[in-house]
Amino acid sequence: MSEIKLHEIKICKSCGLRFPLSPTEKRLEKCPRCGAALESAEIPYESFSVPVKSQPGSHPDFVTVLDNIRSTYNVGSIFRTSDGTGINKIYLCGITPTPDNPKVGKTALGSEKYVPWEHSWSVLETVQNLRGSGYEIISLEGGTGSKNIFEALPKIKKNSKPIALIVGNEVSGIDPEVIKISSLSIYIPMEGIKESLNVATAFGIASYLLRYQGF
Question: How many angstroms separate the Cα of 118 from the Cα of each of 91, 191, 192?
Fold first, then answer.
């Protein structure tokens, strides 16, 4: 059995502030809030693990295509989310950084070693190949003709095809030629002043809804 990594929980004896320290963080002896003495307790990481995991094969085959995502941190976050949702493969297209870039690992936290990936310079060619293999091409993009993701879920479920979710560049979005050959374009409804979410956040919402809520 592998050694359990521990978080150390610090508790202030005076004001009661409670906060965690990882094994690699600097030791603290005084409370950052009031300066009083601290006491500690250790809690294993296993205390925070998910008690029940989804069974492999209980959902349709699901891949994602990243169209010229610029940020290594967004790519790393998408890898981590993909590991959680059980996505089968990530296609990194154009200038999208790959796990060969050490900055991707800053947010992927090791998931990049377990989620299969492939780089391609042409997003259009990649999507055409997936479409030819029977994937339903779904673009995560706003604009005319795009459907609210919550309203689109029943139709996606009814089709019952393997899914390829396309996510576009943080500024310019998805290649228009890819949108043209998509089965469906979906958007996440917004109520605030901004018109869109961070690409990694949007991917997280869409991938979980498509993976679990729709099936």
Answer: 5, 36, 36
The conformation of residue 149, written as its DSSP 8-state character, comes to H
Evaluate whether 202 touches 164 at the Cβ level (below 8 Å): no
Distance (Å, rounded) from C-alpha 75 to C-alpha 52? 27
How crowded is residue 193: how many other Cβ atoms within 10 Å of its Cβ? 5
Residue 54 CB contacts under 8 Å (≥ 6 apart), including other chains: 86, 212
Token pair 């050490």 in the structure block, residue: 102
CATH number of domain containing 122: 3.40.1280.10
Q: What is the mean pLDDT of residues 180-206?
A: 95
The answer as to whether 196 is a domain residue is: yes
Q: Which is it for strands 147-148 and 184-187: parallel, antiparallel or unpaired?
A: parallel
Q: What are 53-74's pLDDT values in tens digits?
A: 666 555 678 999 999 999 999 9
Q: Which CATH number goes with the domain that contains 29?
A: 2.20.28
> For residue 87, what are its two tokens?
């996505």
Q: What's this model's pTM, rounded to 2 decimal places?
A: 0.84
**Would residue 55 count as lying in a domain?**
no
Distance from C-alpha of 4 to C-alpha of 69, rounded to nearest angstrom: 36
